[in-house]
Write a structure and sequence with these properties.
Putative acetyltransferase, alpha+beta, transferase, acyltransferase activity, transferring groups other than amino-acyl groups, 7 strands, MshD_Acetyltransferase, Acyl_CoA_acyltransferase, Aminopeptidase, seven-stranded mixed sheet
């Protein structure tokens, strides 16, 4: 498994990101217009901007034959969300904004699970950028993701509340000191 930092290509990420994002939050898509939301956040334009930004890193997990199986998006800037700012007081910090791996590449039976490799790379990227803490938001109903993040050293620090297309959501804020 290879992890690419700041890849030159974002079209493949876009396609894989949509599929993986849809699977990652599948429990929610029956309630909200999930595919519309996923399409709005995983367009080529968004990824081109993230790749070009000095404040963000896009990391791509690829198999040995070059097939994209997942990605993560890490932002290195202070949060403007008041709920996050109230609990993420150590600076500088980085936000793990997106973390998706295709379902058939999850950890089951793998010696080097892509999700763990991708998470370690995202944490190392934050550390290399000088961050002392990484934070993320995870839906309170997504128990599987919460288990993974806990396994990777994250702890619950608070809750952030936001409007997602008319639905009030409450995500746990998880943090990990570096």
């Amino acid at each position: 498994m290879n992890i690419d930092y700041r890849p030159g290509s974002f079209t493949v990420v876009d396609s894989s990101g949509r599929e993986a994002a849809f699977d990652g939050d599948q429990y929610k898509w029956e309630i909200t217009d999930g595919m519309l939301i996923v399409n709005a956040i995983t367009t080529e334009g968004h990824f081109a901007a993230y790749i070009a930004s000095d404040e963000s890193d896009v990391l791509i997990a690829r198999t040995s034959d070059g097939t994209t199986v997942g990605y993560s998006l890490v932002h290195h800037r202070p949060s403007t969300d008041p709920d996050v700012a109230a609990v993420v007081v150590e600076t500088p910090s980085s936000e793990l904004s997106k973390m998706y791996v295709l379902p058939d590449h999850h950890s089951r039976g793998r010696t080097e699970p892509p999700a763990q490799l991708l998470m370690r790379a995202a944490i190392e990227t934050a550390r290399d950028r000088g961050s002392v803490l990484v934070w993320l938001g995870v839906n309170q109903e997504n128990v599987r993701a919460q288990r993974f993040y806990t396994k990777m050293g994250f702890e619950r620090a608070g809750v952030k509340t936001f409007d997602l297309n008319g639905s009030i959501e409450h995500d746990f804020i998880l943090t990990r000191r570096l």
